[in-house]
Amino acid sequence: MPLFQSDFNPSLPFRNGHFNTMYRPLFMKEFCSYSRKRIFTWDHDFIDLDFSKANSNTIAILIHGLEGSAESKYMLSTANELNGRGIDTVSFNLRGCSGEDNWLLGTYHSGKTEDVHFVVNHILDNYDYENIIIVGFSLGGNLTLKYMGEYADVLSPKIKGAIATSVPIDLTSSEQEMDKLKNKLYIEEFLKTIRLKVLEKSFKFPEFELDKDKLFKAKRFKHLEQLYTVPVFGFDSPEDYWLKASSKPYLSKINKPTLLINAKDDSFLGEECFPYEEAGDSEFFFLEATKYGGHVGFVSSFKQNESRWLEKRISRFIKENIQIQIEQTIS
Questions:
Q1: Are 143 and 136 in contact (CB under 8 A)?
Q2: How far is it, in rounded angstroms, from Cα 50 to Cα 55?
């Protein structure tokens, strides 16, 4: 019964989900010294990887959320935490998110696990790591969980486990939550950058027939998915995309230690994003549903050295639940 009783107990005002969601990106200071490597994909595109090394035989692949990058605060702080624990990291910038537009019309979406598989195989083929861990946040967490289940039968034995945080594992229910008034400000911030990216794609690819009037009137994710995600990636409808891209149907197939951390006060998540039954029935899939934490927040206090509960929880799961494979690399 891999259901964890959480020890996350933040101080006020971090018990407010919106405050915890906003505090990390707006106020936390993070820096990580990256070394960038550009790799070229099978479909004539590129992906930028940002490495931060601790001279380890273990590496964690970090995957950011919607419109994030290797520079997102949670990516920087997790890389620093794991480096301090003797683990190398590589932050995977999803296509079009590294500061430079990718070359193809298609960028990324919540279920595009073929890119995760490509990056994993690049690490396997070009580096001598004995252990690989995948850590994903939000959309990147959905990719992580879907990948661990979808590719379960062909995963390299070097992939030892995964951790996913603040994950909309059921996109249908998550989209319903995002449409509510409580998330209006978040939606507007996401849509600002996505609209501009889609518009830029339409200029670069004039054969892509974009209704620009509908683009700038878009008020929901569903509107942009109808205009871009559905036609570009070959889905029948936004509802078809939500169904096929969600990681929840793949959780039961996971066969390596994998932790999902979702907060009950995360305003992006519906009830279907808390898979108690799947965790209860699995030997390998763990769920920790915290009372507080917001969306990719999990900050416990204003004190910098005491605030990083999430980062420490990630490294603790690696140490306690994947310790047989990598105990020599974690202090």
A1: yes
A2: 15
Q: CA-to-CA distance for 114 and 119, rounded, in angstroms?
A: 9
The helix/strand/coil state of 189 is: helix
Contact call for residues 293 and 196 (beta carbons, < 8 A): no
The two three-digit tokens of residue 271, written as one number: 């009830």
Spatial distance between the Cα atoms of 54 and 87, rounded to a whole number of angstroms: 6
Sign of dihedral through CA atoms 138, 140, 141, 147?
positive
pLDDT of residue 306: 78
Strands 88-93 and 131-137: unpaired
The first and second tokens of residue 228, run together, are 């871009």
In order of 99, 166, 216, 304, 311, the CA distances from 265 in angstroms are 31, 10, 31, 23, 19
CA 263 to chain centre: 15
* 6-to-47, 57, 274 alpha-carbon distances in Å: 36, 30, 14
Q: Residue 153's pLDDT band (boundaries 50, 70, 90)?
A: very high
Residue with tokens 């661990």: 148
pTM higher than the cut 0.90 = yes
**72/164 Cα distance (integer angstroms):** 16
Region of 117 please: left (phi>0), alpha (psi -120 to 50) or beta.
alpha
Rounded Cα–Cα distance for residues 76 and 256 (Å): 25
Q: Across residues 105-133, what is the average pLDDT?
A: 98
**Cα 12–chain centre separation:** 27
Please state, in angstroms and rounded to a whole number, the distance separating the CA atoms of residues 56 and 328.
10
Query: What is the SS3 assignment for 213?
Result: helix
* Tokens of residue 110, six digits: 């919540």
Domains observed in the chain: 3-169+251-326 (3.40.50.1820), 171-245 (no CATH)
Contact at 8 Å (CB) between 271 and 173? yes
If pLDDT is split at 50, 70 and 90, which confidence band does 324 have? Answer: very low
